[in-house]
UniProtKB/TrEMBL annotation:
Gene3D superfamilies: Aldehyde Dehydrogenase, Chain A, domain 1, Aldehyde Dehydrogenase, Chain A, domain 2
Organism for this UniProt entry: Planktotalea frisia
Domain of life assignment: Bacteria
Keyword Repressor assigned: no
Record key words, sorted: Oxidoreductase
Protein name: Succinate-semialdehyde dehydrogenase [NADP(+)] GabD
């Protein structure tokens, strides 16, 4: 598959290519161009030309086109989901669900576009009016990760396009194919050439060239904190705006009066989804001492029922996407063992027929974890949970906040007032009380501290692709 630029497929200028590997089998099943600065410039110039016309397209027409793209995603969900299943390794049904749910977000952004307004002050003098409106920023660069490549792209694309911006996207090296497929699908659904372009290559090559290019006005990035800091620093050279959704090390607090059945069900479901490969999963759990053993037994029982999906078969969890991501889990488990924690479930790589060629790690629970262990201090991005006993819920709150990340938090408490107080005290962008739902398409999503800058989803996402403009109007007053 080639890059999709200005409504057409094209190879890299230098002709270089890179492999796409199926994580379940280790098989190289496709290749994509290994683009460089020259390819970045071609795509950005195409987006800049398209911006000159797209920004003038009436909102109602942009909405019509975006809704057509959303429907095209649904119509092709099985096709794109099958490709995503192969390049990511996640079970097929979950991949198809990612496509359809992402289509819903496009519709939400389209509806928010219809609600955008300008304002006119009524405090002006005779013969004067002051209008505050908003203009689209321009060309946007989107750099997305492997774990939810379609969803996290739509966080950015849907908001940018409805605001009147154009985009050049660079998907992760592990999962480029689903994004490339969507570019063609959207073009066939009516999105004009150059509005959405996709380039492929390595981050330090083509990605850096896009960030440093003088034309784009914004970088939208989801990924690791170290990379996000480097992007933010580079973006200052041309004063680009940034939206950065970065790492997470999200904590759950379980109070002694919590509904343990609900708490353990929610944490098992959320902590191990996508084999733990997402930013706002439960990573660590603080449990009050009176219910610690009961909580641990219930959670272990539920997590033990989750199955791994070997190559060519079904199951709840797929392999980790590559060796680098896999090693996080292995290193954190080894660190916890060395420092005296108990591994009550999992803890070792899964091997055997159907597993040997992929990086499979089973659901793993580390009991008696302490704050000198990596599992309670560093992002895992794998199916490993650290469980820590505490004597008081507010001790748990202190420990939860004693972390450089601030993406999400979770509280389980029978006493609603206590639960709300803990929620208000958590230094995070989103917090759940007494259950864990999917993040809503209508409300802001993003982090505090080193978990990022800015917000995505709903009207908040659209507004981040708009620039305020004040117009001062003067006229002769009729007499």
């Amino acid at each position: 598959m080639d890059m999709f630029i200005d409504g057409a497929w094209r190879p890299a200028m230098a002709g270089a290519r890179q492999n796409v590997t199926a994580p379940a089998t280790g098989e190289v099943f496709d290749t994509v161009p290994a683009g460089d600065a020259a390819d970045a410039d071609i795509a950005i110039q195409a987006a800049a030309r398209a911006f000159e016309s797209w920004k003038h397209v009436p909102m109602v027409e942009r909405v019509r086109i975006q809704k057509a793209c959303a429907q095209a995603m649904r119509d092709n969900a099985e096709l794109v989901g099958t490709t995503l299943n192969k390049e990511l390794g996640r079970p097929l049904l979950a991949c198809v669900a990612e496509i359809t749910r992402s289509a819903d977000l496009l519709d939400v952004y389209a509806e928010e576009g219809l609600r955008l307004t300008a304002t006119m002050s009524i405090a002006s003098g005779p013969g004067e009016k002051t209008v505050v409106t908003r203009d689209p920023l321009g060309v946007v660069v989107a750099i997305t990760p492997f774990n939810y490549p379609v969803t996290l792209l739509m966080f950015k694309l849907g908001a940018a396009v409805i605001a009147g911006c154009t985009m050049v996207a660079k998907p992760a090296e592990d999962t480029p194919l689903s994004t490339l497929m969507l570019a063609e699908i959207f073009h066939k659904a009516g999105l004009p050439a150059g509005v959405f372009n996709v380039v492929t290559g390595r981050g330090r090559g083509i990605g850096a060239a896009m960030i440093e290019h003088p034309v784009p006005r914004k970088i939208a990035f989801t990924g690791g904190t170290a990379a996000g800091k480097a992007i933010a620093a580079a973006a200052t050279g041309t004063m680009k705006r940034v939206t950065l959704e970065l790492g997470g090390q999200s904590a759950a607090i379980v109070c002694a009066d919590a509904d343990l059945e609900k708490a353990t069900s929610a944490i098992a479901r959320h902590g191990f989804a996508n084999s733990g490969q997402f930013c706002y999963r439960v990573n660590r759990v603080y449990v009050e001492r009176p219910v610690y053993e009961d909580f641990l037994a219930r959670l272990t029982d539920k997590a033990a029922k989750l199955t791994l999906a070997p190559a060519g078969d079904d199951g709840d969890l797929g392999p980790l996407v590559n060796e680098k991501i896999y090693s996080n889990s292995e290193v954190q488990v080894a660190d916890a063992r060395e420092k005296g924690a108990k591994i009550v479930l999992g803890g070792d790589r899964k091997t055997g027929t159907g597993f040997d060629d992929g990086f499979y790690f089973p659901p793993t629970i580390i009991a008696d974890a302490t704050h000198d262990m990596l599992v309670l201090t560093e992002e895992t991005f794998g199916p490993v949970l650290g469980i820590c006993v505490v004597d008081d819920a507010f001790e748990a709150l202190r420990l939860a906040n004693d972390n450089r990340y601030g993406l999400a938090g979770f509280v389980f408490a029978g006493d609603l007032a206590k639960g709300l107080t803990l929620c208000e005290g958590m230094e995070v962008g989103s917090v759940w009380l007494n259950d864990i739902h999917r993040s809503s398409h209508y409300v802001p999503f993003g982090g505090m501290k080193e978990s990022g800058v800015g917000r995505e989803k709903g009207r908040y996402g659209v507004e981040s692709y708009l620039e305020y403009k004040t117009m001062y109007l003067s006229y002769e007053v009729a007499k």
